[in-house]
């Protein structure tokens, strides 16, 4: 009778790491074969790195009013007559370096856009799972609230929330809480799209055999929703979140341009465009042009990544 030889650690199969799985996945192959996605990812990474490293690479802190010098105001870009070093893109009417303001403003716009998408995503996922799994009156209440929000213009809801928050807060807290207020104002009308998408997928998954089997063995509903239904709903949510990231940045810029967003002493890209628009016809074109270009680059790169992700995760195109 032959004796069985025990397996040693060296003979045991080695599980590939997550990085190896990513490199061998269809998503990574699709990304490498998509030049526009690579270009957009590099562009977005460059914008994000320069924005978050702004204190190290900019000649001035545009949020520090003591660092602004009025005798250095209205300096044109470095390649035009009258341009001065280190103000590569010129200065505004307060002596604020445009390059520094654009990089610092990009950081605020990226943070507000990302945080608002994450907040709307969390609320939409939770409410969509609950509505699709339980159905009944719970589903009706959640969806009717969503219908009410969809019946109102997005920008009107955001302006209403910011106006109520500004009127309720003391004067000293308005500027301090300007960013959190904007995040909530953008997220409140945005969760409906995620909730409706997750609800539709959850209603389909809740009728399948594996969910019915989990109910028979008395698995808790929250565990079924999180560990069984949610993973099958993530594909359309990932695409929607990526595309809505660009819309959230545009929404923040719109609110700031209308004067209900970030204050002038903490300018985002929208605030910079609003300030520069006042001097567009007086010859100080650089105050509004460069923040506008930066905003266009950010939104363009995010939308290009979203378009690639939508095509890559679409099984009909494989």
Automatic annotation (TrEMBL):
CDD domains per the UniProt record, alphabetical: TM_PBP2
UniProt topology in membrane: Multi-pass membrane protein
Domain ABC transmembrane type-1: 106-306
SUPFAM superfamilies tied to this protein: MetI-like
GO biological process: transmembrane transport
Natural source organism: Antarctobacter heliothermus
InterPro entries xrefs: BP-dependent_transpt_permease, MetI-like, MetI-like_sf, OppC_N
Localization per record: Cell membrane
PROSITE patterns given in the database record: ABC_TM1
Family: Belongs to the binding-protein-dependent transport system permease family.
Transmembrane segments annotated in the record for this chain: 37-57, 108-136, 148-170, 176-194, 233-259, 279-300
Record's keyword terms, sorted: Cell membrane, Membrane, Transmembrane, Transmembrane helix, Transport
Lineage of source species: Bacteria, Pseudomonadati, Pseudomonadota, Alphaproteobacteria, Rhodobacterales
Protein name as catalogued: Dipeptide transport system permease protein DppC
GO terms under cellular component: plasma membrane
